[in-house]
Amino acid sequence: MKILVTGGAGFIGSAVVRLAVRRGHEVVNLDAMTYAANAGNVASVSNSPLYAFEQADLRDRAALDRVLADHQPDAIMHLAAESHVDRSIDGPGDFIETNITGTYNLLEAARAYWVGQGRPEGFRFHHISTDEVFGSLGETGQFTEDTPYDPRSPYSASKAASDHLVRAWHETYGLPVVLTNCSNNYGPFHFPEKLVPVVILNALHGRPIPVYGDGGNVRDWLYVEDHADALLLVLEKGDLGRSYNIGGENEAKNIDLVRTICAHMDRLRPEHAPHERLITFVTDRPGHDRRYAIDPTRIRTELGWQPSVTVEEGLARTVEWYLQNEDWWRPLLSRQGVGERLGKA
Ligand SMILES: NC(=O)c1ccc[n+]([C@@H]2O[C@H](COP(=O)([O-])OP(=O)(O)OC[C@H]3O[C@@H](n4cnc5c(N)ncnc54)[C@H](O)[C@@H]3O)[C@@H](O)[C@H]2O)c1
Fold first, then answer.
1. Which domain of life is it from (predicted)?
2. Which H or E run includes 330?
3. Is 82 a catalytic site residue?
4. What residues have CB less than 8 Å from 71, skipping those under 6 apart?
């Protein structure tokens, strides 16, 4: 297949690009190269004859039309988005423009292209979304594909809106879409403003490790390469118009995840142990969702997917990767907002 991946220079998009090229697909990576992007994320495939890059912005409809006309993909995997909840609290405008208007532009460009091609049956528009659209759970229960949407941050509201647009383009115009909603990812190439890399790098530098609120917020963690594998499976085998929840069934309280990373740092950098002494509780994020948990029954039973890595193994690999890849993360620490407390409203 020739796949147009949007956001392929970001964290998850680059995992999709690397895996798709490894599997022999042709990939066109469309990315605006915002603060969250990094060319190094796709360095391992950028010389492949299967790989092409287009710097283009979802807000520029004409650019999207041109890229589709030039490359004529068989499928689109749409991952480009503004993705950091704290930044969405400080500046929701970019989230509305990229995640909602940008998705609208891409849907319209895809529809025009698909119609122009004679509505090929095999064409797919795969929209990649988050479990955050479902809101916050209490102590029990899991999100299924039928859980009503209840987004509570500007980020999750913008992603929810984009999901609705994608479903509407399927129902109204017959665009062949599939959707996925995934839980929190972690792994290599994760931008150093997100929890897991912040903990690793602050521990490494002997700096306070900030934990929001009481640390009791629960997330369902999935290794990024397992997510990429699930996404390619849904693209190839998912039923049209349906959505699939993706999660590793690895629920952990933030504080426990942080302690596990500290234990890995104690093992790998024993001279600074115990790293737990750096944990510092800070003012909570406004509207901080308490618990997310994914019921992945549909993708497991209907498509036969399962994650390959336990959270213990995935976290160990991730910590080791950051310790071995300073050249990757060091330049990112000077990007705007990195290392600052954002999203206090
Ligand atoms: N990170 C997670 O845990 C998680 C979980 C579930 C779903 N998701 C979803 O997966 C997708 C990818 O997330 P991520 O963590 O890799 O994000 P990321 O922030 O690491 O990467 C986003 C990429 O999109 C690009 N981009 C942003 N605005 C753009 C625009 N206007 N035009 C073109 N490109 C633009 C950026 O340059 C960047 O390369 C997002 O849609 C996100 O909502 C993320």
1. Bacteria
2. none
3. no
4. 2, 4, 28, 52, 54
Q: How far apart are CA 92 and CA 336, in angstroms?
A: 16
What CA–CA distance (Å, rounded) separates 20 from 302?
A: 22
Residue type, 126: H
Q: Which is catalytic among the residues 26, 132, 289, 295?
A: 132
Q: Which two tokens stand for residue 214?
A: 């009481």
Q: Is 31 in the pocket of ligand 1 (CB under 6 A)?
A: yes
Residue 131 is among the residues annotated as catalytic for this protein: yes
2-187+220-250+292-310 is a CATH 3.40.50.720 domain: yes
- Residue 209, beta-bridge partner list: 279
For residue 311, the model assigns a pLDDT of 92
Give this prediction's pTM: 0.98
Mutate to test the pocket of ligand 1, among 30, 79, 105 (most ligand atoms within 8 A of CB): 79
- Residue 173: the pLDDT is 98
For residue 126, give both structure tokens.
């795969």
Note the pLDDT of residue 131.
97
What is the C-alpha to C-alpha distance for residues 249 and 222, in angstroms, rounded to an integer? Answer: 8
Q: What is the pLDDT of residue 307?
A: 96
Q: Give the pLDDT score at 6.
A: 99
What is residue 345's predicted lDDT score, i.e. its pLDDT?
Answer: 80
Domain layout of the chain by residue ranges: 2-187+220-250+292-310
Return the closest-CA partner of residue 189 out of 6, 8, 3. 8
> 């509505």: which residue's tokens?
119
* pLDDT at 63 (0 to 100): 98
Regions of the chain where pLDDT drops below 50: none
132 an active-site residue? yes
Among 119, 118, 142, 105, residue whose Cα is nearest residue 240: 119
CA 92-94-95 angle, to 5 degrees, is: 65
Distance (angstroms) between ligand 1 centre and the Cα of 198 equals 18
- Tokens coding 229: 């594998």
